[in-house]
Design a protein that fits this description.
The protein is of the alpha/beta class. The chain has 2 domains: 107 residues, Rossmann fold; 45 residues, no CATH class. The protein has a 4-stranded parallel β-sheet with strand order 2-1-3-4, sandwiched between helices. Strand 6 and strand 7 form a beta hairpin. The longest helix has 29 residues. It is flat and about 55 Å long. The mean pLDDT is 88.
Length: 189
């Protein structure tokens, strides 16, 4: 099942549908170029229908919704962690990548529209003067007009990724220790 999900992640061209409990994760995914649809208004039936019709992977914290998706052959990922870094670690384990090179594919964290690079002159009215002096790369969302740049918030993003990697390493170490500590069973005759 795990390898099938990894293949689906690769084939889905990063198209996801997140339930109402995962808004913060949706915004984080969008920063790294994932097409992450999210709505607080859709009920479970509507989420399942939209995931199936749009070919998106359903990402949820709801165990019952997750099971119903699998029963309908809808690819789904169950998120069990509470912290953002824990959620990101779970997705990394499922084959998701969070690399700085992906920033060229960044989507608007607010509305999920792909961003385009913009000149300083183009964004001058929407960016604080200190940020205009300090940064050279700016991105704009053509749908909602928001302007983004790799400012101080980028430290928080890197910190989240570092914690996610640490969680993965700890789990891998714990898993290896658990396997080494469990005695092998003698063959049954």
């Amino acid at each position: 099942m795990e390898s099938l999900l990894n293949e689906l992640v690769a084939l889905s061209v990063k198209r996801l549908l997140l339930d109402a409990m995962l808004g913060k994760l949706a915004r984080f995914l969008r920063i790294f170029g994932y097409d992450a649809e999210y709505s607080r208004e859709l009920d479970d039936r509507q989420l399942l229908q939209l995931a199936k019709e749009s070919g998106r992977i359903l990402v949820t914290r709801d165990v019952d919704l997750y099971r119903r998706a699998l029963m309908r052959n809808i690819p789904a990922i169950l998120i069990t962690e509470q912290s953002l870094s824990g959620m990101v670690a779970e997705l990394m384990k499922e084959g998701f990548s969070f690399e700085e090179q992906q920033l060229a594919q960044t989507r608007c964290p607010v509305c999920n529209t792909p961003l385009r690079q913009a000149s300083k002159e183009e964004v001058r009215q929407n960016v604080p003067p200190a940020s205009l002096r300090r940064y050279n790369q700016f991105y704009i969302c053509e749908a909602c007009g928001k302007v983004y740049w790799l400012g101080s918030h980028w430290r928080n993003i890197r910190s989240t990724l570092k914690r996610a990697h640490t969680l993965l390493e700890r789990r891998a170490t714990k898993s290896r220790r658990g396997k080494a500590a469990s005695p092998s069973r003698p063959p049954v005759s």
